[in-house]
Amino acid sequence: MSIIPAAAHPSFRLCGELRVPGDKSISHRALILGAMAEGRTEITGLQDGEDVLNTLKAMRSLGADIVRGADDTTWCVSGFGAKGATSPAAPLDFGNSGTGVRLVMGMVAGLGVEASFIGDESLSGRPMDRVLKPLSALGVKVNSRDGCLPVTIYGGGPIPAQTTKTSIASAQVKSALLLASLRSKGVTEIIEPALSRDHSERMLRAFGAEVHSEVLADGRHRVRLSGPAHLKATPVIVPADPSSAAFPIAAALCIPGSDITLQGVLMNPTRTGFIDVARRMGGQIDISNIRASGGEEIADIRVRGSVLRGVETTPDIVPSMVDEFPILAVLAAFASGTTMMRGLAELRVKESDRIARTEEMLQGVGVEVKSGEDWLCVEGTGAVWGESANAVPVPVRTDGDHRIAMAAMVLGLASFRRVQVADPGCIATSYPGFCDDMRALGARFQEEAEGALC
Ligand code: S3P
Hints:
The chain is α/β, with parallel strands linked by helices.
């Protein structure tokens, strides 16, 4: 496949309405729980990026029957339920997806089947021991290349119900442990240092499992699952993904005169950190039409071009916007004053080293940035920069990271230099229609090989 570089040019105001794709976290979980459940789960609005499609293929390999509905927006999953999963003949390939691979490792551990897990170069370098160690402690037999992929899980009989205390607030780790324990008899308890996104807990309840969660007096979060859980198919409506919405939101905030509305965005409080911080920066963000949908709250979000000021973010907010820091740093570059972001250690082990890639991207267009092991500090320019006559494109290194690529494209819309992404294909990991959606709002994106602005 030939890779056509893409460039973002300084743009005039963005206007219009948009519905970003379905939430990636909820989409993975809908496929996984649908596959484990008894009966036929209808999923509306499934996100169809590469990560989610890899989970879909894995569910088929484990024995679920999954077909696309007639109207193209619906998928039907006939779960293997009590019949049980089958051991896949070939390794399950999760491509770039940390969520897919970690959740399904937990699922397989509890199912009594054997499966091997592989992924692309980025995923093969990411730590899997955060899931493998607690699973081993629960008695699951695992094999890995020094805590990384390839991994093989030898699922045995039901895991005895136990208490696990995790050292990081990671929804992937929490969810893997919950999925591994669905057949356990008795109460499984997971205590995480702070509340991470809670879609697994919510969706497990919707599928009939008994799950209780509470924030403890010391701020830690405890989930209790009473097993064995017998999951029953239930319809899932996937709301628009707030992590994908963060890119058009940031673009509209940075470009004066912009006025856009994003429809049906998930407003789960474990996911709205970016909106909270952008508002603290002075962002004009109006939330309306708040309504319930599929066990979650959704709303429409109106965003207008704004005068932004720098802020400080503390570690406690990180779980609620862990994927949004690269785009927050772009926003910070257009604010006046300093933005200091703390508690970012997890960004080092995402699809790329996001602290390093974000720092390099902003320095490339002349923004002053400093970083440490777990922090990033951006000196805002306080201005929207005009296009320079002899603009030479600034190449941005993404290491195949979709969120760095989208942040770079947004940076280019308001910066004085054309920003160029060599591998925009990685955006399809989570948001295949990103460039088209942004163009529809007025963004000037160009595929370099075509030589003309769209
Ligand atoms: C996700 C959890 C987050 C996030 C990822 C999706 C999930 O990771 O970065 O994109 O769906 O559970 P951690 O749980 O490791 O923080």
